[in-house]
């Protein structure tokens, strides 16, 4: 078994859609990035990459590559899942935490978990998504950005 930790952060900006865990959430700002800037999915991917010693998403999907401009992070997660399978790894579980002052994402969590588990080809009960604020402290607290942490546990396929 192997464990990996992922962390990602993106700035909030106007005139972008907000995508978290593959769910488009109605909000007046979105996350700035080369892809869809799905901070939650990016943290999950980095946790998986770390556990499998694949580097990180910057190495696999550089923002200098035009192929990834505007791409769905769920599509990138599917590519990470394929790499894991090629190398003989299976997801035991993922625990992820979104850090944002707003919007409230509680109603969207089941869909986020379903999207992430589907992209990974694993059971939905293996993916957990939580959210928290930072009590108006720091860049997440003043709503200038969002962050996410994720931990992933992998096991060798039989």
Automatic annotation (TrEMBL):
UniProt xrefs under Gene3D superfamilies: 2-C-methyl-D-erythritol 2,4-cyclodiphosphate synthase
Instruction: Give a GO molecular function annotation for the protein.
Output: metal ion binding
Indicate the transmembrane segments per the record.
Answer: none
- Superkingdom as given in the UniProt entry: Bacteria
The UniProt site entry described as Transition state stabilizer is assigned to 34, 133
Keywords, sorted A to Z? Isoprene biosynthesis, Lyase, Metal-binding
For the ligand (4-CDP-2-C-methyl-D-erythritol 2-phosphate), the binding residues are 8-10, 34-35, 56-58, 61-65, 132-135, 139
User: Where is a divalent metal cation bound in this sequence?
Assistant: 8, 10, 42
Q: Where does the record place the 2-C-methyl-D-erythritol 2,4-cyclodiphosphate synthase domain?
A: 1-154
Q: What is its EC number?
A: 4.6.1.12
**PROSITE patterns associated with the record:** ISPF
Q: How is the cofactor bound?
A: Binds 1 divalent metal cation per subunit.
Cofactor(s) needed for function: a divalent metal cation
Q: Which reaction does it catalyse?
A: 4-CDP-2-C-methyl-D-erythritol 2-phosphate = 2-C-methyl-D-erythritol 2,4-cyclic diphosphate + CMP
The record's InterPro entries line, in alphabetical order, gives: MECDP_synthase, MECDP_synthase_CS, MECDP_synthase_sf
The record's listing under PANTHER family reads: 2-C-METHYL-D-ERYTHRITOL 2,4-CYCLODIPHOSPHATE SYNTHASE, CHLOROPLASTIC
Query: Which HAMAP family does UniProt cross-reference here?
Result: IspF
Q: Which family does it belong to?
A: Belongs to the IspF family.
Role: Involved in the biosynthesis of isopentenyl diphosphate (IPP) and dimethylallyl diphosphate (DMAPP), two major building blocks of isoprenoid compounds. Catalyzes the conversion of 4-diphosphocytidyl-2-C-methyl-D-erythritol 2-phosphate (CDP-ME2P) to 2-C-methyl-D-erythritol 2,4-cyclodiphosphate (ME-CPP) with a corresponding release of cytidine 5-monophosphate (CMP).
Q: How does it assemble?
A: Homotrimer.
Name used for this protein in its record: 2-C-methyl-D-erythritol 2,4-cyclodiphosphate synthase
């Amino acid at each position: 078994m192997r464990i990996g930790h992922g962390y990602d952060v993106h700035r909030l900006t106007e005139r972008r859609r907000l995508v978290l865990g593959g769910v488009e959430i109605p909000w007046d700002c979105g996350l700035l990035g080369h892809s869809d800037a799905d901070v939650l999915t990016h943290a999950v991917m980095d946790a998986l990459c770390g556990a499998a010693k694949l580097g990180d998403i910057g190495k696999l999907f550089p923002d200098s590559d035009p192929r990834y401009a505007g791409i769905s992070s769920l599509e990138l997660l599917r590519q990470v899942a394929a790499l894991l399978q090629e190398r003989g790894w299976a997801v035991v579980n993922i625990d992820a935490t979104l850090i944002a002052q707003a919007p409230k994402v509680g109603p969207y969590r089941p869909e986020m978990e379903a999207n992430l588990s589907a992209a990974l080809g694993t059971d939905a009960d293996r993916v957990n998504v939580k959210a928290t604020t930072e009590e108006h402290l720091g860049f997440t607290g003043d709503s200038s950005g969002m962050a996410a942490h994720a931990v992933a546990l992998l096991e060798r396929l039989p």
